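User: Can you predict the 3D structure for this chain?
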Amino acid sequence: MAECGVCFRHCKLAEGQIGFCGGRIAKNGRVEALNYGRITALALDPIEKKPLARFFPGSMILSVGSFGCNLRCPFCQNNEISWSEQARRSAQTADTIRPEALAELALATRQRGNLGIAFTYNEPLIGYEFVRDTARLAKAKGLKTVLVTNGTAELSVLDALAPYIDAMNIDLKGFTDRYYSQVLGGSRSQVLAFIQAAARSCHVELTTLVVPGENDSEAEMRELSQWVSRLESADGEEIPLHISRFFPRYQMQDRQATDVKTVYRLAEVAREALRFVYTGNC
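Assistant: Here is the predicted structure, written as structure tokens:
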């Protein structure tokens, strides 16, 4: 058996077995990225869509995604490439690209306002080797590198990536262990540790999707924002927080969208502790 060391699950896999995330496989006695260089999504996006509000605003960035995810968010808007049956099919049909080719493509789109490369759409940390190899090349070419992640990874993964990543948007999906473990299938403690370490290594912004009846109380937002206010950042600035509106998706299509007034109210609560608070999907 080979043990994966990417996230808290530490999947123990027999030869040829694929891990919980769908993106890693046991091969030759070790666990490696099954999704290395296998691309399911590629687009030139505004940097604000990541979302990053205080990192080269007005720029575009080449956004790339693969397949697989180590969480099970029932509201996932990218479930086709994260962890559904479609994701398994994506594993078989995804285009393959080498890090060198992706870095050159990003360089070629500079004339269209491209700043660099964002690893996003699915969970990039489960295929961190491709992120590392591509980001290293991109940095050498003077490109900026961005990671959009759920932050569910061991600090050893962050250590491997940190020298090559300029900015991250990390989901802080809620602030209770119940929500993380029972609804998302994750580990809040691992995410908090990842955020703390990442904030000391590069520009970091956080996103909280407000889901009615799950993480929409003023008390939870107050506790969350106060914790964020105490983070040490690499640039000495306060960490920005994006508070985003939920829409019915995937396995939560029976829920109502978050009331816009709730998002604005929670943003005001967050502003008690934070200077940079942004609302999204409103």
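Residues 18 and 25 are 4 Å apart (CA to CA). The chain has one domain: 36-280.
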